[in-house]
């Protein structure tokens, strides 16, 4: 017993050291690592399509070409539309800044000011932050388009291996049934999450973009794509993506128009996140809100903005990996919501 108890601090020290070294290493190569991770997720997203085409009798090389061609066409069409809209919107930002400043000043004069406390200065600060955020959003969209080609090429090579992964795994570990089951289970859960998360984000962004278009909000497609991407960021992603269309509605229809856009965006998101996503995903891959927030900070520290977008998928990868082994299942339960902990205690009791 003494030997076992004395090894616990040593194990904690080893695991902590490994985590710190791994974190530093990933941060040093974050620019390359982010592109590779995006490519991996794209490859996993299109792997079911490749396998389905192979089951229908399409040759493996042709199925991969068809999947990559589909992805390339989607990226090119959306890229042209979104980048064009982003440039147009960017050219209008000075006008929007003047409108927002005038609107804020009109409302600020109704709020009493106190000695040493100026409402006007606070309003100017809010306007400056809002405009700088909108500029950063436009620049981020334009800059992201330049890496799309690298992601497409890398994903194509990964798809070649991913499509043939089951055969390779079966040949290498055919006799190791337990390891084979764990790898298969890990792969299925990961692909399931990536596909369902993408589907839910597409539905959310499409419905919101359609309603914005019907409501006459400019650049509705641009905001739909932005909502699709930032919906991967827990809690704050949708809020950031909602600022530009809310501002445009405020300029066009006034406060009631902005309020209507807020209600539309968050009502659609509430339905998809609280009804559609849980029904498609199930409880097994849910994450604790507190752990998600910590993971968001961690991946932002390691990979920057790309890590923020990838925080949920990467954290789910870790949880699925921990769930695949009996000795680490308790750690996976810690990452889940409170219900998972209760079920784990019942089953262990």
UniProtKB/TrEMBL annotation:
InterPro entries: AI-2E-like (IPR002549). It comes from the Archaea. It is a multi-pass membrane protein. The chain crosses the membrane at residues 6-25, 32-50, 62-87, 148-165, 190-214, 220-241, 253-271, 291-322. Keywords: Membrane, Transmembrane, Transmembrane helix. It is found in: Membrane. One of its GO terms (biological process) is transmembrane transport. One of its GO terms (cellular component) is membrane. Belongs to the autoinducer-2 exporter (AI-2E) (TC 2.A.86) family. PANTHER family: AI-2 TRANSPORT PROTEIN TQSA, TRANSMEMBRANE PROTEIN. This is Putative transport protein.
């Amino acid at each position: 017993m003494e030997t076992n108890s004395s090894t616990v601090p040593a194990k904690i020290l080893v695991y902590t050291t490994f985590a710190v070294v791994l974190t530093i290493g990933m941060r040093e190569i974050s620019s390359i690592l982010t592109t590779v991770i995006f490519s991996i997720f794209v490859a996993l997203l299109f792997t079911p399509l490749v396998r389905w085409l192979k089951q229908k009798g399409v040759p493996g090389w042709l199925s991969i070409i068809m999947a990559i061609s589909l992805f390339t066409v989607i990226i090119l069409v959306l890229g042209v539309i979104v980048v064009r809209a982003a440039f147009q919107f960017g050219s209008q930002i000075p006008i929007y800044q003047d409108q927002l400043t005038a609107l804020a000043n009109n409302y600020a004069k109704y709020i009493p000011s106190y000695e040493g406390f100026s409402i006007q200065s606070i309003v100017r600060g809010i306007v400056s932050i809002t405009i700088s955020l909108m500029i950063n959003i436009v620049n981020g969209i334009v800059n992201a388009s330049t890496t799309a080609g690298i992601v497409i090429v890398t994903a194509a090579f990964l798809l070649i291996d991913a499509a043939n992964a089951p055969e390779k795994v079966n040949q290498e570990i055919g006799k190791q049934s337990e390891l084979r089951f764990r790898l298969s289970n890990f792969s299925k859960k990961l692909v399931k999450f990536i596909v369902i998360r993408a589907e839910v984000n597409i539905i959310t962004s499409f419905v919101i973009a359609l309603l914005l278009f019907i409501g006459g909000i400019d650049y509705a497609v641009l905001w739909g794509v932005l909502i699709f991407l930032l919906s991967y960021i827990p809690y704050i992603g949708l809020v950031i993506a909602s600022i530009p269309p809310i501002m445009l509605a405020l300029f066009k229809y006034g406060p009631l128009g902005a309020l209507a856009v807020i209600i539309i965006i968050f009502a659609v998101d509430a339905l998809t996140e609280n009804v559609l996503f849980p029904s498609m995903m199930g409880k097994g891959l849910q994450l604790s809100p507190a752990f998600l927030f910590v993971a968001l900070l961690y991946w932002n520290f390691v990979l920057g903005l790309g890590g923020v977008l990838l925080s949920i998928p990467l954290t789910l990868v870790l949880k699925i990996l921990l769930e695949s082994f009996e000795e680490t299942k308790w750690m996976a339960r810690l990452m889940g919501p409170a219900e998972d902990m209760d079920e784990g205690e019942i089953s262990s009791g």
